[in-house]
């Protein structure tokens, strides 16, 4: 027991991982676009009458057209991630959610991906060691997968878990589970800890776990050689944010100097300076217009490939993407515009690798919209292309073979 933390460690399978980083590595904004401008787009959903799992589209960055090429059944794969070489895809299986008892653990599923044909093949599934897994990250060295478990039934409060990635692409059983303790002032939302995202720092040395329930960004040192334990709390342990704000998602700038956070309950974006595992708050900006009186629920946050603009989604009654210009001199942001998502509950969104398009899923409207993006102003064209899909949530890009 570490004060405020409980660590549950299994050493099984520690020797079974290998790096999955391939020679055809792709990182948004850094790889040359394919000659035909076509990428594979992998979409995670909540399953139900209009969705069966994960969908694969061919996305033409020259036209903004998306054509479905395949799908595979999966249980609430609401968040997905692909390896850097594009050969494997991992998804959460968000349970219990609305589809099972609280005693039922969530899952993590592994798939092989043939980028040429756009086909996914199921490999295996393991327990997420918690309930409602809602986020995934692959360590920069490709050895481990981390997940944020929003809740844990047997021990109310969220956790994050760590899984070794094996040479054949399968995901191993968790080797580490970390529970946070505490809560916040918002009754019903902050009665316990609720980990909502796990994000590695650009230098690959630290993992940040954003806890909506405790209003803290926990920081852990990553030492894959085991010399200091796989993950251990840093000396500072965590960064506080405003009580009742509910931190959700964190993203780092490409130069590693600044980080940006959405806080779900307060609908704010916070700017931090980053330095060797430490976050220092610089700015906090509201996402809503002055005088807005409706419900808010800030969600995803992403930077444009060139780093000049920051985008954040807000659900509730706002249902929009807010656009911020980034000052490269100090990381500060200022509002540049906002765009309705033309639906309800825009949970996740993504900007294509060329920076020309932004696609957002309206979870409660069974639609996704592809907005043309002005790369000079950062603004989104108000006449997007529509994709009909049941409860779309997450979007990831892969280079075709």
TrEMBL record:
Protein name: Lactonase family protein
Keyword hit for Hydrolase: yes
Keywords, in A-Z order: Hydrolase
Protein's organism: Paraburkholderia phymatum
EC number(s) recorded for this UniProt protein: 3.1.1.-
């Amino acid at each position: 027991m570490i004060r405020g933390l409980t660590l549950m460690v299994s050493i099984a399978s520690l020797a079974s991982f290998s790096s999955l980083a391939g020679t055809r590595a792709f990182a948004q904004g850094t790889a040359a676009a394919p000659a035909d401008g076509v990428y594979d787009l992998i979409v995670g959903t909540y399953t139900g009458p209009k969705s069966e799992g994960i969908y694969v589209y061919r996305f033409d960055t020259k036209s903004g057209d998306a054509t479905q090429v395949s799908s595979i059944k999966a249980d609430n794969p609401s968040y997905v991630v692909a390896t850097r070489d594009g050969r494997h895809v991992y998804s959460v299986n968000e349970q219990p959610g609305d589809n099972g008892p609280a005693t039922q653990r969530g899952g993590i599923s592994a798939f092989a991906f043939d980028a040429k044909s756009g086909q996914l093949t199921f490999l295996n599934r393991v327990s997420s060691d918690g309930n409602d897994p809602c986020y995934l990250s692959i360590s920069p060295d490709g050895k481990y997968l981390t997940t944020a478990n929003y809740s844990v039934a047997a021990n109310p409060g969220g956790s994050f878990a760590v899984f070794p990635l094996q040479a054949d692409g399968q995901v191993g059983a968790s080797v580490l589970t970390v529970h946070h303790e505490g809560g916040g002032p918002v009754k019903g939302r902050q009665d316990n800890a609720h980990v909502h995202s796990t994000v590695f720092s650009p230098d690959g040395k630290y993992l940040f776990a954003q806890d909506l329930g405790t209003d803290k960004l926990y920081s852990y040192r990553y030492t894959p050689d085991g010399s200091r334990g796989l993950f251990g709390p840093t000396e500072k342990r965590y960064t506080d944010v405003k009580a009742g704000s509910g931190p959700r998602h964190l993203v780092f700038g490409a130069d590693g100097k600044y980080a940006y956070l959405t806080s779900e309950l307060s609908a704010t974006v916070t700017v931090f300076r980053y330095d060797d595992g430490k976050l220092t708050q610089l700015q906090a900006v509201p996402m809503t217009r002055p005088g807005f009186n409706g419900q808010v629920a800030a969600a995803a946050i992403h930077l444009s490939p060139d780093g000049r603009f920051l985008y954040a989604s807000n659900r509730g009654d706002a249902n929009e993407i807010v656009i911020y210009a980034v000052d490269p001199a100090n990381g500060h942001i200022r509002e540049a515009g906002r765009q309705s998502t033309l639906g309800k509950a825009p949970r996740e969104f993504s900007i294509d690798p060329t920076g020309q398009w932004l696609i957002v899923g309206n979870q409660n409207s069974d639609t996704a919209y592809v907005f043309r993006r002005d790369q000079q102003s950062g603004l989104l064209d108000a006449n997007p292309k529509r994709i009909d899909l049941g409860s779309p949530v997450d979007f990831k890009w892969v280079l075709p073979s």
